[in-house]
From TrEMBL:
NCBIfam families: cyoE_ctaB, PRK04375.1-2
Assembly and oligomerization: Interacts with CtaA.
Chief subcellular location: membrane
Transmembrane feature ranges: 30-46, 52-75, 122-143, 150-173, 179-199, 220-240, 246-267, 288-306
Alphabetical list of HAMAP family matching this protein: CyoE_CtaB (MF_00154)
Gene: ctaB
Segments forming a coiled coil: none
Native organism: Paracoccus thiocyanatus
The name this protein goes by in its record: Protoheme IX farnesyltransferase
């Protein structure tokens, strides 16, 4: 990691960290998806869980997700400072020191894993520990700066939470949890590549080898469309398992049809067309991707309630 001592100087200029700055270290927007998918994985599992135990389990999974975010911000402070999208984060902005971010990340990692083991089971706790390690070390420290496959492989970290939630209830892994993992895993690359299409300069300046930087935007467009085709069968397959049903299937078919159609429109465009309309199609696809995963998991939750009723 590049030396980030330069970012500490601004704290001496009178900036004091507030509670909101420490919350921002936990990446609350990312953590909200982690919490929701973990909650759904726990809720729809075949073994019922005591509501209080379930609440504690989701809380500790959320803390583990926040720990990953803090460790990511600690290590990535140098490239965050270069990118417009991330320059205002607490560490590069100088409101929180890198040492504080590291200490918070380590403390929350240990606390979340230990408490999840006590609240639920040690298999789920071990799974959470592996997820934190995967995001902080495998993705942040290794993959992100070394390969254009960073998002592809690193996306596994964001796909583990529903499996952890399922493991909290069952103590193991099932086909349904694997398909929930696949849903998030194959969604992650096109989601971030669509963002990279209209944020390429940020990644280039920071030296992050995103696909747009290493292989160009034409190749990125082809990859986005290919992943939408790979993603759809897993999303729909989930509807034929014990956690699926007609309501979920209807939602999955509509969303994946829209996702594939959006990927096709991106594939057919060239840079001249994209620049002419300010990357309108790419931005719409990215906006759709923000709702894609949430609506799938919401459909699973509603399907479960309908089935129970």
């Amino acid at each position: 990691m590049a030396d980030i001592n330069a970012y500490e100087g601004s704290r001496e200029g009178g900036f004091e960290a507030g509670f909101g700055d420490y919350v921002a270290l936990l990446k609350p927007r990312v953590m909200s998806l982690v919490v929701f998918t973990a909650l759904v994985g726990l809720w729809i599992a075949p073994q019922p869980v005591n509501p209080f135990v379930g609440f504690c389990a989701v809380l500790f999974i959320a803390l583990g997700g926040g720990a990953s975010g803090a460790l990511n911000m600690w290590y990535d402070a140098d490239i965050d400072a270069v990118m417009k999208r991330t320059a205002g984060r607490p560490v590069p902005a100088g409101r929180v020191s890198s040492q504080e971010a590291l200490a918070l990340g380590i403390a929350l990692s240990g606390l979340s894993v230990m408490m999840l083991g006590l609240a639920a089971n040690w298999f789920a706790a071990g799974f959470l520990a592996f997820t934190i390690f995967f995001y902080a070390v495998v993705y942040t420290i290794w993959l992100k700066r070394s390969t254009p496959q960073n998002i592809v492989i690193g996306g596994a970290a964001g796909a583990f939470p529903p499996m952890i939630g399922w493991a909290c209830a069952t103590g193991g892994i099932g086909l349904e949890s694997l398909l929930m993992f696949a849903l998030v895993f194959f969604w992650t690359p096109p989601h971030f590549w669509a963002l990279a299409l209209f944020m390429k300069d940020d990644y280039s300046k920071a030296g992050v080898p995103m696909l747009t930087v290493t292989h160009g935007r034409k190749a990125t467009r082809a990859h986005i469309f290919a992943y939408t085709l790979v993603l759809a069968p897993f999303a729909i397959w989930l509807g034929f398992t014990s956690v699926g049903g007609p309501l979920y299937l209807a939602v999955a078919v509509v969303l994946n049809a829209l996702f594939i159609a959006g990927g096709w429109r991106i594939l057919r465009r060239n840079e001249e067309q994209a620049q002419a309309d300010g990357y309108l199609v790419e931005k719409r696809y990215f906006r759709l991707s923000l709702y894609y995963t949430f609506l799938h998991f919401l459909a699973l939750l509603v399907q479960h309630w309908v089935g129970a009723w």
